């Protein structure tokens, strides 16, 4: 039976065994035992195993020449030795084995394979190892921690490795920033595109059609879950599998992805990434150039998989489903992928303890009954045990909401005239609920305009308050930057004016009878949108199921509706 290799991926284990044979490595008569430490950082998808094998050859060569038997192997793949927030499991295990005297020597090819955090980390380890007689070996650097000047040499090299990492981090950051400004894509190509020699992207002949289908399905109203299931049922391979097969076809080694099918997270990433619209992205956000415009990463706008407007509309439709309109918190965790609820008042109705009501059903004597219950009670939490007939609550809330909406609109029209703030507010809510793409595009342009205005203000404060740009060259830079931002502001103002701003015809809401007829013909999702025109929240109090439903229900109206209802009550009194 072969000895266990410590936390080695199966592929690496096989290669090390084929190359060096089973553990232990070395003559059984050698008394001293050691461990080999191997590390690679930022492991790419096209990872080749040769680097760790070369490290192992170097370490094994030293062990043989010093009659040390290798009984343990530690390997950290895709692990930085510089970043403080990275946990290296095998590194920690190796140091622990030294402390416990399970091995005497821990062998690394070089100091920078062991640590890039400087003497702060290495010095602490050396202090601990002095008490137990453990030795760190760095083959290529010719250093043993128990040598006379080993600690001094190790201090110099560990600090050098730390400085190199900091310098590399800075250079890479500057390089990426420079390429972003030029629209050059430096990362792994995004799904749906191929990278050209100049760093610009163009459509992949096959993948772009798949990613385009993601967009069109979202625009058609499909949920993330429905899109993912559709691709899986059609046998369409996931983006990870496309890249994996691409590596194999090129004759390169590749790690097989853990997930080989489509998931809601995959669909969401493809849909929300700015590359969908051909925009440069950083941190999943589009990047702006010095002129305030988004930086394109495609050679031509026609190479983008979607237009900017299409991308914004698709995101708005999906985000409307997965976020609560008022709190901004994600909803739909229990149904998954933001799937709309199957019951009319879920999300609108609550118990007095602010627990939301969920729809449940039970069968008694062969007959099925539907009712709302507080989710806390169904989950075993302490609760007022609110329970109410679904039919009774639905009928009461719908009738009350439609009557309140009609009454509020009527008095607002009579007292304030047409186009009043109540009508406009209800129209805006209707657009947000039923036409999220319409409001999203206007909101995006308004956001860009606000950002440009903030930049102009900051420039003016720098010039006149902080006394920057004071020399002649500085004044030229100031005028150039300010003129660019003013031009951008003008373009955005004109674009905002060009966007359609028509309000929907909601005259059917003025008559409760007509609005009820329209309501009954609508889909469940549209019915919920109509209720939200008037209602913010429905609270159901505990009580006898035979008591009148209106005695148990408390409705909170939208501020504009509540204001008009107060006027009606005042007039009536």
Automatic annotation (TrEMBL):
<dbReference type="InterPro" id="IPR025827">
    <property type="entry name" value="Zn_ribbon_recom_dom"/>
</dbReference>
<dbReference type="InterPro" id="IPR050639">
    <property type="entry name" value="SSR_resolvase"/>
</dbReference>
<dbReference type="GO" id="GO:0003677">
    <property type="term" value="F:DNA binding"/>
</dbReference>
<dbReference type="InterPro" id="IPR036162">
    <property type="entry name" value="Resolvase-like_N_sf"/>
</dbReference>
<dbReference type="InterPro" id="IPR011109">
    <property type="entry name" value="DNA_bind_recombinase_dom"/>
</dbReference>
<feature type="domain" description="Recombinase">
    <location>
        <begin position="190"/>
        <end position="324"/>
    </location>
</feature>
<dbReference type="Pfam" id="PF00239">
    <property type="entry name" value="Resolvase"/>
</dbReference>
<keyword id="KW-0233">DNA recombination</keyword>
<keyword id="KW-0175">Coiled coil</keyword>
<dbReference type="Pfam" id="PF07508">
    <property type="entry name" value="Recombinase"/>
</dbReference>
<dbReference type="Pfam" id="PF13408">
    <property type="entry name" value="Zn_ribbon_recom"/>
</dbReference>
<keyword id="KW-0238">DNA-binding</keyword>
<dbReference type="InterPro" id="IPR038109">
    <property type="entry name" value="DNA_bind_recomb_sf"/>
</dbReference>
<protein>
    <recommendedName>
        <fullName>Recombinase family protein</fullName>
    </recommendedName>
</protein>
<dbReference type="InterPro" id="IPR006119">
    <property type="entry name" value="Resolv_N"/>
</dbReference>
<feature type="coiled-coil region">
    <location>
        <begin position="442"/>
        <end position="495"/>
    </location>
</feature>
<feature type="domain" description="Resolvase/invertase-type recombinase catalytic">
    <location>
        <begin position="33"/>
        <end position="183"/>
    </location>
</feature>
<dbReference type="GO" id="GO:0000150">
    <property type="term" value="F:DNA strand exchange activity"/>
</dbReference>
